[in-house]
Fold this sequence. Notes:
Blueprint: E1 4-7, H1 15-26, E2 31-33, E3 40-44, H2 48-58, E4 67-69, H3 76-79, H4 84-93, E5 98-103, E6 118-122, H5 127-136, E7 140-141, H6 156-163, E8 169-172, E9 183-189, E10 192-197, H7 203-207, E11 212-215, E12 245-249, H8 252-265, E13 268-272, E14 285-287, H9 294-309, E15 315-319, H10 327-337, E16 342-344
Parallel strand pairs: 1-8, 2-8, 4-6, 5-9, 10-11, 12-15, 12-16, 13-14, 13-15
Antiparallel strand pairs: 2-3, 3-7, 4-7, 5-6, 9-10
Helix pairs in contact: 1-5
The structure holds threonylcarbamoyladenylate (TXA) and magnesium ion.
Amino acid sequence: MKTEIIRINDLSAQNGDLARAADIIRGGGLVAFPTETVYGLGGNATDDGAAKKIYAAKGRPSDNPLIIHIADPADADRYAAVNDTYRRLAKAFMPGPLTVILPRRETIPKSVTGGLESVAVRCPSHPVAHRLIELAGVPIAAPSANLSGKPSPTVAEHVIQDLSGRVDMILDGGPSEIGLESTIVKVDGDDEVTLLRPGGITYDALCMVVGTVHIAPAVTHALAENERPLSPGMKYRHYAPSVPVVLLRGEPEATLAFLMRAQDREKCAILCYFEETAYLKPERLFPVGARGDLAAQAHTLFRNLRAADRTDAEIIYAHLPPENGLGLALYNRMIRAAAHTVRDIP
Ligand code: TXA
Ligand code: MG
Protein backbone atom coordinates (compact mmCIF):
# COMPACT_ATOMS: atom_id res chain seq x y z
CA MET A 1 0.00 0.00 0.00
CA LYS A 2 1.25 3.48 -0.79
CA THR A 3 0.94 5.87 2.15
CA GLU A 4 0.21 9.49 1.35
CA ILE A 5 1.86 11.94 3.77
CA ILE A 6 0.30 15.37 4.11
CA ARG A 7 1.73 18.19 6.17
CA ILE A 8 -0.98 20.41 7.67
CA ASN A 9 0.38 23.94 8.00
CA ASP A 10 -2.81 25.93 7.75
CA LEU A 11 -6.00 24.09 8.60
CA SER A 12 -8.38 26.66 7.16
CA ALA A 13 -6.55 26.69 3.80
CA GLN A 14 -6.33 22.89 3.66
CA ASN A 15 -9.96 21.93 3.96
CA GLY A 16 -9.62 19.90 0.75
CA ASP A 17 -6.87 17.72 2.27
CA LEU A 18 -8.94 17.13 5.41
CA ALA A 19 -12.01 16.33 3.30
CA ARG A 20 -10.00 13.68 1.43
CA ALA A 21 -8.79 12.19 4.71
CA ALA A 22 -12.40 12.10 5.92
CA ASP A 23 -13.43 10.32 2.68
CA ILE A 24 -10.81 7.65 3.33
CA ILE A 25 -12.19 7.10 6.84
CA ARG A 26 -15.79 6.91 5.61
CA GLY A 27 -14.70 4.49 2.87
CA GLY A 28 -13.24 2.06 5.41
CA GLY A 29 -9.57 3.11 5.07
CA LEU A 30 -7.00 4.20 7.67
CA VAL A 31 -5.66 7.70 8.38
CA ALA A 32 -3.06 8.52 11.06
CA PHE A 33 -3.63 11.95 12.57
CA PRO A 34 -2.23 14.24 15.27
CA THR A 35 -3.91 14.74 18.64
CA GLU A 36 -2.85 16.79 21.66
CA THR A 37 -1.71 13.58 23.44
CA VAL A 38 -0.05 11.36 20.80
CA TYR A 39 -0.75 10.49 17.14
CA GLY A 40 -3.71 8.19 16.50
CA LEU A 41 -4.34 5.53 13.84
CA GLY A 42 -7.91 6.21 12.78
CA GLY A 43 -10.67 4.21 11.12
CA ASN A 44 -14.49 4.34 11.07
CA ALA A 45 -15.58 3.15 14.55
CA THR A 46 -18.92 1.90 13.26
CA ASP A 47 -17.24 -0.33 10.65
CA ASP A 48 -16.17 -3.82 11.67
CA GLY A 49 -13.81 -4.11 8.68
CA ALA A 50 -12.00 -0.86 9.51
CA ALA A 51 -11.41 -2.08 13.07
CA LYS A 52 -9.86 -5.29 11.76
CA LYS A 53 -7.55 -3.25 9.50
CA ILE A 54 -6.42 -1.17 12.51
CA TYR A 55 -5.47 -4.27 14.52
CA ALA A 56 -3.61 -5.69 11.51
CA ALA A 57 -1.71 -2.47 10.72
CA LYS A 58 -0.47 -2.18 14.32
CA GLY A 59 0.08 -5.89 14.89
CA ARG A 60 -2.16 -5.48 17.92
CA PRO A 61 -3.96 -8.34 19.70
CA SER A 62 -7.65 -8.04 18.81
CA ASP A 63 -8.79 -8.33 22.46
CA ASN A 64 -7.21 -4.94 23.25
CA PRO A 65 -10.04 -2.44 22.65
CA LEU A 66 -9.88 0.86 20.74
CA ILE A 67 -10.88 4.34 21.93
CA ILE A 68 -13.59 6.01 19.85
CA HIS A 69 -13.04 9.70 19.10
CA ILE A 70 -15.96 12.13 18.78
CA ALA A 71 -16.16 15.79 17.76
CA ASP A 72 -18.72 16.83 20.36
CA PRO A 73 -18.91 15.35 23.90
CA ALA A 74 -22.71 15.21 23.57
CA ASP A 75 -22.33 12.67 20.71
CA ALA A 76 -21.24 10.03 23.25
CA ASP A 77 -24.91 9.32 23.85
CA ARG A 78 -25.20 7.66 20.40
CA TYR A 79 -22.48 5.13 21.13
CA ALA A 80 -22.57 4.66 24.90
CA ALA A 81 -24.96 4.82 27.85
CA VAL A 82 -23.98 8.15 29.41
CA ASN A 83 -24.82 9.27 32.92
CA ASP A 84 -24.43 12.38 35.01
CA THR A 85 -20.85 11.54 35.99
CA TYR A 86 -19.90 11.45 32.30
CA ARG A 87 -21.61 14.79 31.72
CA ARG A 88 -19.71 16.41 34.58
CA LEU A 89 -16.37 15.00 33.37
CA ALA A 90 -17.16 16.12 29.83
CA LYS A 91 -18.05 19.62 30.96
CA ALA A 92 -14.81 19.95 32.94
CA PHE A 93 -12.30 18.26 30.64
CA MET A 94 -13.61 17.88 27.06
CA PRO A 95 -12.39 18.57 24.48
CA GLY A 96 -9.11 17.42 26.00
CA PRO A 97 -6.93 14.50 27.09
CA LEU A 98 -9.58 12.44 28.90
CA THR A 99 -11.09 9.10 27.88
CA VAL A 100 -14.19 7.79 29.66
CA ILE A 101 -15.29 4.15 29.68
CA LEU A 102 -19.05 3.61 29.59
CA PRO A 103 -21.49 0.81 28.73
CA ARG A 104 -21.46 0.18 24.94
CA ARG A 105 -24.42 0.72 22.62
CA GLU A 106 -25.02 -1.53 19.59
CA THR A 107 -23.86 1.23 17.20
CA ILE A 108 -20.27 0.27 18.03
CA PRO A 109 -19.29 -3.21 16.86
CA LYS A 110 -17.68 -5.58 19.34
CA SER A 111 -14.52 -5.80 17.23
CA VAL A 112 -13.84 -2.16 18.21
CA THR A 113 -14.27 -2.89 21.94
CA GLY A 114 -12.23 -6.09 21.90
CA GLY A 115 -15.37 -8.07 22.67
CA LEU A 116 -16.22 -5.99 25.75
CA GLU A 117 -19.64 -4.59 26.63
CA SER A 118 -18.03 -1.23 27.43
CA VAL A 119 -16.66 1.44 25.11
CA ALA A 120 -13.97 4.09 25.60
CA VAL A 121 -14.97 7.60 24.45
CA ARG A 122 -12.70 10.61 23.93
CA CYS A 123 -13.14 14.07 22.41
CA PRO A 124 -9.70 15.38 21.39
CA SER A 125 -8.92 19.10 21.43
CA HIS A 126 -6.36 19.11 18.61
CA PRO A 127 -7.83 21.18 15.75
CA VAL A 128 -6.79 18.69 13.03
CA ALA A 129 -8.29 15.74 14.93
CA HIS A 130 -11.44 17.71 15.64
CA ARG A 131 -11.91 18.76 12.01
CA LEU A 132 -11.23 15.25 10.71
CA ILE A 133 -13.88 13.68 12.96
CA GLU A 134 -16.36 16.41 12.10
CA LEU A 135 -15.86 15.98 8.34
CA ALA A 136 -15.91 12.17 8.56
CA GLY A 137 -19.34 12.34 10.17
CA VAL A 138 -18.63 9.07 11.99
CA PRO A 139 -16.80 8.38 15.27
CA ILE A 140 -13.15 7.51 14.67
CA ALA A 141 -11.64 4.48 16.40
CA ALA A 142 -7.98 5.27 17.04
CA PRO A 143 -5.29 3.58 19.06
CA SER A 144 -1.89 5.25 19.26
CA ALA A 145 -0.29 5.15 15.79
CA ASN A 146 2.69 2.97 16.71
CA LEU A 147 3.46 -0.67 16.06
CA SER A 148 2.17 -2.69 19.00
CA GLY A 149 4.70 -2.61 21.88
CA LYS A 150 6.62 0.45 20.64
CA PRO A 151 6.47 3.86 22.35
CA SER A 152 3.52 6.00 21.19
CA PRO A 153 4.34 8.46 18.38
CA THR A 154 4.51 12.14 19.30
CA VAL A 155 5.68 13.40 15.89
CA ALA A 156 4.69 12.32 12.36
CA GLU A 157 8.20 10.97 11.74
CA HIS A 158 7.58 8.20 14.32
CA VAL A 159 4.32 7.28 12.61
CA ILE A 160 6.11 7.12 9.26
CA GLN A 161 8.79 4.84 10.79
CA ASP A 162 6.17 2.44 12.18
CA LEU A 163 3.25 2.54 9.73
CA SER A 164 4.47 3.64 6.31
CA GLY A 165 3.01 1.23 3.73
CA ARG A 166 0.41 0.01 6.25
CA VAL A 167 -2.05 2.93 6.20
CA ASP A 168 -3.65 5.07 3.47
CA MET A 169 -2.68 8.50 4.77
CA ILE A 170 -0.63 10.19 7.50
CA LEU A 171 -1.52 13.76 8.50
CA ASP A 172 1.52 15.59 9.88
CA GLY A 173 0.37 18.26 12.32
CA GLY A 174 3.66 18.80 14.15
CA PRO A 175 4.62 17.55 17.63
CA SER A 176 1.88 16.46 20.08
CA GLU A 177 1.69 18.99 22.87
CA ILE A 178 1.26 16.68 25.87
CA GLY A 179 3.28 13.72 24.63
CA LEU A 180 1.58 11.04 26.79
CA GLU A 181 -1.69 9.26 25.99
CA SER A 182 -4.98 10.43 27.49
CA THR A 183 -6.09 9.83 31.06
CA ILE A 184 -8.55 6.90 31.09
CA VAL A 185 -11.30 6.56 33.70
CA LYS A 186 -13.99 3.93 34.00
CA VAL A 187 -17.30 5.17 35.32
CA ASP A 188 -18.24 2.78 38.16
CA GLY A 189 -21.49 4.39 39.16
CA ASP A 190 -22.89 7.66 40.29
CA ASP A 191 -20.04 10.01 41.27
CA GLU A 192 -17.47 7.21 41.30
CA VAL A 193 -14.71 6.39 38.80
CA THR A 194 -11.55 4.28 38.60
CA LEU A 195 -8.40 5.73 37.05
CA LEU A 196 -7.07 3.10 34.63
CA ARG A 197 -4.36 5.14 32.90
CA PRO A 198 -3.02 8.47 34.21
CA GLY A 199 -2.38 11.25 31.68
CA GLY A 200 -2.71 14.98 31.15
CA ILE A 201 -5.83 15.17 33.35
CA THR A 202 -4.37 14.46 36.78
CA TYR A 203 -5.80 12.53 39.73
CA ASP A 204 -6.22 15.80 41.64
CA ALA A 205 -8.12 17.39 38.74
CA LEU A 206 -10.49 14.38 38.60
CA CYS A 207 -11.10 14.66 42.36
CA MET A 208 -12.36 18.21 41.89
CA VAL A 209 -15.20 16.90 39.70
CA VAL A 210 -15.96 13.36 40.92
CA GLY A 211 -16.62 12.38 44.55
CA THR A 212 -14.67 9.10 44.58
CA VAL A 213 -11.66 8.41 42.37
CA HIS A 214 -10.06 4.97 42.79
CA ILE A 215 -6.65 4.28 41.28
CA ALA A 216 -6.36 0.86 39.61
CA PRO A 217 -3.43 -1.04 41.21
CA ALA A 218 -1.88 -1.68 37.77
CA VAL A 219 -1.25 2.07 37.37
CA THR A 220 1.74 1.86 39.71
CA HIS A 221 2.38 -1.87 40.20
CA ALA A 222 3.11 -4.89 38.06
CA LEU A 223 0.11 -7.17 37.55
CA ALA A 224 0.48 -10.43 39.45
CA GLU A 225 0.48 -13.69 37.45
CA ASN A 226 -3.12 -14.60 36.55
CA GLU A 227 -4.47 -11.27 37.79
CA ARG A 228 -7.27 -10.03 35.54
CA PRO A 229 -6.60 -6.43 34.46
CA LEU A 230 -9.38 -3.81 34.54
CA SER A 231 -8.22 -2.68 31.11
CA PRO A 232 -6.92 -5.22 28.57
CA GLY A 233 -4.09 -2.82 27.64
CA MET A 234 -2.59 -3.20 31.11
CA LYS A 235 -1.48 -6.74 30.50
CA TYR A 236 0.60 -6.03 27.41
CA ARG A 237 4.23 -4.93 27.50
CA HIS A 238 4.02 -1.31 26.53
CA TYR A 239 6.03 1.76 25.67
CA ALA A 240 9.07 -0.38 25.43
CA PRO A 241 12.27 0.26 23.52
CA SER A 242 14.30 -2.83 22.57
CA VAL A 243 17.22 -1.74 24.76
CA PRO A 244 16.58 -2.47 28.49
CA VAL A 245 15.61 0.56 30.56
CA VAL A 246 16.67 0.96 34.22
CA LEU A 247 15.10 3.63 36.43
CA LEU A 248 17.21 5.25 39.14
CA ARG A 249 15.87 6.20 42.56
CA GLY A 250 18.08 8.26 44.87
CA GLU A 251 19.23 11.69 45.97
CA PRO A 252 20.19 14.07 43.13
CA GLU A 253 23.95 14.16 43.88
CA ALA A 254 24.28 10.40 44.34
CA THR A 255 22.32 9.66 41.16
CA LEU A 256 24.41 12.07 39.12
CA ALA A 257 27.61 10.50 40.48
CA PHE A 258 26.29 7.07 39.51
CA LEU A 259 25.56 8.29 35.96
CA MET A 260 29.04 9.84 35.62
CA ARG A 261 30.65 6.53 36.64
CA ALA A 262 28.28 4.56 34.39
CA GLN A 263 29.43 6.53 31.32
CA ASP A 264 33.04 5.46 31.98
CA ARG A 265 32.17 1.85 32.52
CA GLU A 266 29.42 0.87 30.07
CA LYS A 267 27.74 1.71 26.78
CA CYS A 268 24.74 3.50 28.22
CA ALA A 269 22.18 6.02 26.98
CA ILE A 270 20.98 8.48 29.63
CA LEU A 271 17.74 10.44 29.92
CA CYS A 272 18.99 13.25 32.17
CA TYR A 273 17.73 16.53 33.60
CA PHE A 274 18.91 19.80 32.01
CA GLU A 275 20.81 20.60 35.20
CA GLU A 276 22.93 17.46 34.76
CA THR A 277 24.06 17.97 31.17
CA ALA A 278 27.13 20.02 32.16
CA TYR A 279 28.46 17.08 34.19
CA LEU A 280 27.86 14.29 31.69
CA LYS A 281 29.47 13.38 28.38
CA PRO A 282 27.31 14.25 25.38
CA GLU A 283 27.34 10.80 23.75
CA ARG A 284 23.94 9.09 23.99
CA LEU A 285 22.73 11.84 26.29
CA PHE A 286 19.06 12.88 26.08
CA PRO A 287 18.06 15.90 28.19
CA VAL A 288 14.40 15.53 29.19
CA GLY A 289 13.69 18.93 30.75
CA ALA A 290 14.45 20.69 34.03
CA ARG A 291 14.19 18.48 37.14
CA GLY A 292 10.88 19.95 38.27
CA ASP A 293 9.37 20.48 34.80
CA LEU A 294 7.08 17.44 34.51
CA ALA A 295 5.26 18.87 31.47
CA ALA A 296 8.52 19.10 29.51
CA GLN A 297 9.49 15.58 30.63
CA ALA A 298 6.10 14.23 29.48
CA HIS A 299 6.37 16.08 26.17
CA THR A 300 9.78 14.55 25.40
CA LEU A 301 9.55 11.07 26.99
CA PHE A 302 8.53 8.92 24.02
CA ARG A 303 10.74 10.85 21.61
CA ASN A 304 13.71 10.33 23.93
CA LEU A 305 12.98 6.63 24.40
CA ARG A 306 12.86 6.14 20.63
CA ALA A 307 16.05 8.14 20.09
CA ALA A 308 17.92 6.32 22.87
CA ASP A 309 16.77 3.03 21.39
CA ARG A 310 18.34 3.93 18.04
CA THR A 311 21.84 4.38 19.53
CA ASP A 312 24.29 1.53 20.09
CA ALA A 313 23.58 1.66 23.84
CA GLU A 314 23.28 -1.61 25.74
CA ILE A 315 21.30 -0.05 28.56
CA ILE A 316 19.16 3.09 29.02
CA TYR A 317 19.20 4.92 32.39
CA ALA A 318 16.49 7.39 33.40
CA HIS A 319 15.31 8.99 36.64
CA LEU A 320 12.29 7.52 38.41
CA PRO A 321 9.68 10.33 38.32
CA PRO A 322 7.62 11.40 41.34
CA GLU A 323 4.09 9.96 41.65
CA ASN A 324 2.25 13.24 42.17
CA GLY A 325 0.53 15.48 39.59
CA LEU A 326 1.58 14.80 36.01
CA GLY A 327 4.40 12.71 37.55
CA LEU A 328 1.97 9.80 38.00
CA ALA A 329 1.49 9.56 34.21
CA LEU A 330 5.25 9.70 33.63
CA TYR A 331 5.82 7.14 36.38
CA ASN A 332 3.21 4.80 34.86
CA ARG A 333 4.78 4.93 31.36
CA MET A 334 8.36 4.73 32.59
CA ILE A 335 7.94 1.73 34.89
CA ARG A 336 6.37 -0.09 31.94
CA ALA A 337 9.16 0.93 29.57
CA ALA A 338 11.57 -0.39 32.21
CA ALA A 339 9.54 -3.56 32.86
CA HIS A 340 9.49 -2.40 36.52
CA THR A 341 13.29 -2.37 36.84
CA VAL A 342 14.19 0.23 39.48
CA ARG A 343 17.69 0.57 40.92
CA ASP A 344 18.17 2.23 44.31
CA ILE A 345 21.22 4.50 44.47
CA PRO A 346 22.47 4.71 48.07
O1 TXA B 1 -4.42 9.71 23.96
C1 TXA B 1 -4.94 8.65 23.59
O2 TXA B 1 -5.78 8.06 24.27
C2 TXA B 1 -4.50 8.10 22.23
C3 TXA B 1 -4.97 9.07 21.16
C4 TXA B 1 -4.73 8.56 19.77
O3 TXA B 1 -6.32 9.38 21.36
N1 TXA B 1 -5.03 6.77 22.03
C5 TXA B 1 -4.56 5.69 22.71
O4 TXA B 1 -5.13 4.48 22.34
O5 TXA B 1 -3.69 5.76 23.55
P1 TXA B 1 -4.50 3.06 22.71
O6 TXA B 1 -5.31 2.09 21.96
O7 TXA B 1 -3.05 3.08 22.42
O8 TXA B 1 -4.76 2.89 24.22
C6 TXA B 1 -6.10 2.71 24.66
C7 TXA B 1 -6.14 1.96 25.97
C8 TXA B 1 -5.73 0.51 25.84
O9 TXA B 1 -4.87 0.20 26.91
C9 TXA B 1 -7.05 -0.24 25.98
O10 TXA B 1 -6.88 -1.50 26.60
C10 TXA B 1 -7.88 0.71 26.82
O11 TXA B 1 -7.49 1.98 26.40
N2 TXA B 1 -9.32 0.55 26.57
C11 TXA B 1 -10.00 0.88 25.44
N3 TXA B 1 -11.29 0.54 25.55
C12 TXA B 1 -11.45 0.02 26.78
C13 TXA B 1 -12.57 -0.53 27.50
N4 TXA B 1 -13.78 -0.61 26.96
N5 TXA B 1 -12.35 -1.00 28.76
C14 TXA B 1 -11.12 -0.94 29.32
N6 TXA B 1 -10.04 -0.43 28.69
C15 TXA B 1 -10.19 0.02 27.44
MG1 MG C 1 -1.13 2.54 22.52
